[in-house]
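Progress against Task 2.4 (sequence-to-structure conversion) is shown through the following example record, which the project officer requested during the mid-term review.
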Amino acid sequence: MPNLTQTIAENLGKWMQKAEQLADLFAERSADIDREGRFPFDNFSDLKTAGFLSLTVPAEYGGEGLNLYEFVMLQEQLAKGDAATALSLGWHLGSLLELSENRPWDEKVFRSLCLKVVEEQVLINRAATEPATGSPTRGGMPQTTAVRKGEHWLVSGRKSFTSMAEALDYSLVTARIENTSRKGIFLIDHKLPGVEIEKSWDTISMRGTRSDDLVLNDVRAETSALVEEEGDQTNYTYPKAWLLHIPACYLGIAAAARDYAVAFAKQYRPNSLPGPIKEVPEVQRKTGEMELELYKAREILHAAARRWVGEREKRKEMGPELGAVKHIVTNCANRVVDLAMRITGARSLTRSNPLQQYYRDVRAGLHNPPMDDSVVAVLAKRAFEQE
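Structure tokens generated for the chain above:
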């Protein structure tokens, strides 16, 4: 990986500093956002001002052109402040990164979207999940339909788990084309008539993502709105490495939980002990276990991202590895938060304590794609296919 370290340091330094400052600001708002279950518009206003929305837009179109390693590093840092904000931003930046690396669209359409992100600070996300099909990674046929009417498409359907729904400017909507087995991806402008947001998000985790339902009622889209046909392997050269933004986000939650527990153990002095609880062997053991889990998670996540950036010729083979990274990191993150709560004790369950929010939020990582069972199945299949 020649010059990779130098390149990363040059690109990442200033953005990490900004991310740390933003994370501190987001942390002050996080509890209110979670309690009220509202979208963090203030946080996204700060992200736009700081130029974060165009981080993964190619430099040729005015973006920063950050790579996968830089992306996941920033995700972890932002998530320490507010995980819902970081995860939401990750869908936007990750979608742009995947498009940048594969270039599956007509270049004029992609260029137009990139310029809108850079100049108008628009937000995009993929809208693929539906109540009847579950996660799109499992391959179900969408019930959302796109019917050709002259020079337009009429797109109708309902998408669930649409993160940032009320803040989005565009959605990449997966729909069944006519009455066929073909699945198209349509770039839908949320200003078009027939685009509605139904407030259905009522969960205990990641409340600030406002992953409400996107409802499309005969939305009349231009023919150019069909930007790609899903399943056409010529469109995508590489596996979905951009999804590493997911474990990076949950790693950030775990790091925040660790920091809280360590600070608590250093200052909490019950009158039954001669000093703070950091001197108790069991607290030291649990703290050491947190450190091991974090070390393991960071090493495997960072190594995979660096390999993706520095060994392009091996990207096509990295699908199972990327899934394994997500599985390992999100499960490590859950264990870290659990250990932090055990160190802190029953007060970690009080509503005013950030650990109870970390606990609820980190659980969501187990349900983000790819799911644990799918990862294990892929690894088993590869093992049996090897000579």
